[in-house]
Amino acid sequence: MKYIMLRAIVGGKPLLLPIIFPNHLVHEDVAIHMKMNLLRNHSWPSTVNSAGFINSLGVCSGKSESLKCDSSPEDTNIIKTYDYTQGLC
């Protein structure tokens, strides 16, 4: 699986939004569409914070060639604890 981590501004506060998707899709395409939808539907400006791959244990690694962006060591913990932290930075 692949993932991107978007950083959005929601109510004046930074929020990390993990997006996990199948390997058949391209990081850049998913990032463009998600950023457009967040801005259009919620008025949340966003940028790509990190991107890479996530394995079946939820461990993030690697990088996105299309976005020229690496995974971050914090991404695994952010995704695993998202139910509790809701992506607050």
- Oligomeric state, counting identical vs distinct chains: single chain
User: Which sequence of SSEs, written as H and E, runs from N to C?
Assistant: EEHEEEEHH
Helix content: 25-40%
* Major sheet attributes: 4 strands, antiparallel
**For the CA atoms, what is the radius of gyration?**
12 Å
Count structural domains.
Answer: 1
Structure summary, number of beta strands: 6
Any overview of this molecule?
It is globular, with a radius of gyration of 12 Å. The protein has one domain (2-85). It has helices at 27-42, 75-80, 82-85, and strands at residues 2-10, 13-21, 46-54, 60-61, 63-64, 69-70. The strands form two sheets. A four-stranded antiparallel beta sheet has the order 2-1-3-4. The chain contains three helices and six strands. With 89 residues, the chain is of the alpha+beta class. The model has no long low-confidence stretch (mean pLDDT 93).
Which secondary structure elements does this structure contain, and how are they paired or packed?
Elements: E1 2-10, E2 13-21, H1 27-42, E3 46-54, E4 60-61, E5 63-64, E6 69-70, H2 75-80, H3 82-85
Antiparallel strand pairs: 1-2, 1-3, 3-4, 5-6
Short summary:
The protein has 89 residues and is α+β, with helices and mostly antiparallel strands. The protein contains 3 helices and 6 strands, in the order ββαββββαα.
